[in-house]
Design goal:
- 38% of the residues lie in helices and 15% in strands.
- The protein is an alpha/beta fold.
- The protein is globular and about 65 Å long.
Length: 421
């Protein structure tokens, strides 16, 4: 019995050390060395697409490499594609403005790199550009995905991009003269009306809303609460990802001895999820690197404060300030932040989020920005505004359905293909 307990203790120690060691490599960017090696080998590939895919990750880690004209010219040369297609179906996309005339083009918003990649075809893109401007919404940190490099190499008219991070705006110049950055990201389209406040008690001490992938770092929260003596209620809400399920999250909680304080909820309805936001005292955004992390914006618009690490590469980091969040540098500071979770004004957090980052407000801002650019820079007309819209888990919806088409059955007929959005 004593030996078994000793063996379990040693096993737990090594598992914790493994988690912390892997995390150290990521935070110190040592893991990017692998990207350099892969990029070097990919250049030797015969298939241009394999070359492009191989070097893309390198440019995401070291975007300043794209400042060299020879490199840009070379990788753009790998990207060209010209195939016949009969029909293209775009998911996670929406028509913001219909085509009016050759002097007033429509506007299509596309999210996720896989969807943008469907337009990376010379014949397809030429016809779309005749009638529409494209806005692309990246899903991940690192601007230079293979799909965006491919699209940039083919674009012959102005297109727009909403980078995950504000610091990525300066790198848009390397995507060619037709690329125009916009001051929004995937977390800019939360419908505040869906998160309206209720009288429900805030009885969840800590909340994580994230898929169960390892990069979400649930274990850091478990490490932090293991240092807190009080009886906390912690909810980890998400979906399975990359082979990791509810079982793996519970195993990590048990590893740190806090499983009795953790409730893991898998795939709740949107209504139940919004109720969790309203009940939470603090939202924990613990990833080191990812995309916009829409859940942070949803927490704020629910009046829930956020805790995030100072060195995180997360798009919604720009929304945080001393009035709505804790920014921490260590697990010890995370523990202290959780202890102080009740010091915020929930109503004030929600009001600020609604006024500064709701879909309703941002739809108006986007319309103004697009109108100003297209009238001044494109010498085109603007007689119709874009439709107000919002997103739920990156599925886009019109704010006023009565004025708009049902996006689930919308077809655009071009000369050589059908586009379904």
């Amino acid at each position: 019995m004593l030996f078994r307990g000793y063996k379990q203790g040693v096993g737990s120690y090594f598992l914790k050390t493994k988690l912390k060691g892997e995390n150290f490599l990521k935070e110190k960017n040592i893991s990017s060395i692998v990207s350099i090696v892969k990029a070097m080998f990919s250049i030797l590939a015969k298939d241009p697409r394999k070359k492009l895919n191989g070097v893309s990750n390198l440019f995401c880690h070291y975007p300043n490499l794209m400042s060299f004209r020879y490199i840009r010219k070379t990788i753009f040369g790998w990207a060209n594609r010209d195939e016949e297609v009969a029909e293209i179906e775009l998911s996670n996309s929406i028509i913001l403005k219909d085509y009016v005339s050759p002097r007033e083009k429509g506007i299509i918003l596309i999210s996720f790199e896989r969807e943008l990649g469907k337009l990376c075809n010379k014949r397809v893109l030429e016809e779309i550009e005749d009638r529409y401007h494209v806005i692309f919404l990246p899903s991940w940190t690192g601007l230079f995905s293979p799909e965006i490099l491919c699209f940039a190499s083919m674009a012959k008219q102005t297109w727009f991009v909403m980078p995950v991070h504000k610091k990525e705006h300066k790198y848009c110049q390397y995507l060619g003269g037709f690329c125009v950055p916009l001051e929004y990201n995937a977390a800019s389209w939360v419908n505040d009306e869906l998160f309206s406040p209720t009288d429900v008690e805030r009885d969840i001490d800590c909340l994580i809303v994230a898929n169960f992938a390892s990069f979400k770092r649930h274990w850091i929260l478990f490490d932090a609460i293991s240092n807190i003596q009080e009886n906390l209620t912690v909810y980890c809400v998400g979906v399975s990802w990359g082979g990791r399920t509810k079982t793996e999250i519970e195993a990590e909680a048990e590893l740190f001895g806090v499983l009795d304080r953790v409730e893991v909820v898998e795939s709740p309805t949107q209504e139940i999820l919004r109720e969790y936001y309203r009940r939470a005292k603090i939202f924990c955004a613990l990833s080191y690197r990812e995309g916009s992390f829409i859940a942070v914006a949803e927490a704020l618009i629910s009046g829930t404060p956020v805790v995030m690490f100072e060195n995180s590469h997360i798009g919604t980091r720009s929304l945080l300030n001393p009035d709505n969040s804790f920014i921490v540098r260590s697990v010890t500071e995370l523990s202290e932040a959780i202890k102080r979770r009740g010091q915020f004004d929930n109503h004030a957090i929600r009001q600020a989020a609604v006024q500064e980052n709701s879909a309703k407000v941002n739809s108006k801002r986007l319309n103004k920005d697009l109108r100003k650019h297209i009238l001044a820079k494109e010498s085109q007309e603007w007689t119709r505004d874009i439709s107000s819209f919002y997103s739920v888990r990156l599925s886009f919806m019109y704010a006023d359905v009565s004025k708009c088409y049902d996006s689930s059955s919308r077809y655009l007929e071009f000369d050589n293909f059908l586009l379904k959005i």
